[in-house]
Design a protein that fits this description.
A 7-stranded antiparallel beta sheet has the order 1-7-6-5-4-3-2. By secondary structure, the protein is an alpha+beta fold. It contains 3 helices and 7 strands. Helix content is about 25%, strand content about 45%.
């Protein structure tokens, strides 16, 4: 089973509670998550065991991922597990830590599949990294409007 892990971190000049108000609310994913395409129906509250479907954009396509909320440790972390096309498994985690000037957010996505090996791991990493960075910029823009 091959694996690709992509992690990005960003600092925000707002309190962790303000960041968590956005990250801990699945309905707000369209406001900042660059890979978000649509929800077939509104997602539930982020509580362990909750499930929802989301269409995501990546590698020039839109595909549906079926998500399950694994853990929620408000106001610090959210972990989702998902299954996408071709049986790709995805772990999506967000963590918020207090920082000197506000908050630090760590955004980590792990892709696992029999198809992931060699150059494909590099391709996934190269495709996901700019999308994750854009997502964190989108998140920062939400706080600059307040």
């Amino acid at each position: 089973m091959g694996k690709a892990i992509v992690t990005e971190t960003a600092n925000f000049e707002v309190a962790p509670a303000a960041v968590w108000a956005v990250l801990g609310d699945l309905r707000r994913l369209p406001e900042w998550l660059a890979s978000h395409d649509s929800f077939p129906k509104e997602p539930p509250a982020a509580v362990p065991g909750a499930t929802f479907a989301q269409r995501v954009k990546g590698l020039g396509r839109s595909a549906e991922v079926d998500w399950r909320v694994e853990t929620v440790e408000a106001p610090r972390s959210l972990v989702l597990s998902g299954r996408g096309p071709m049986n790709v498994k995805v772990w999506f985690s967000l963590s918020v830590e207090p920082a000197e000037a506000g908050s630090t957010v760590t955004y980590r996505t792990e892709y696992t599949s029999l198809l992931l090996s060699g150059p494909l791991v590099t391709q996934v990493h190269e495709a996901a990294t700019p999308v994750m960075r854009e997502s964190l910029r989108n998140l920062a823009a939400l706080f600059s409007r307040t």
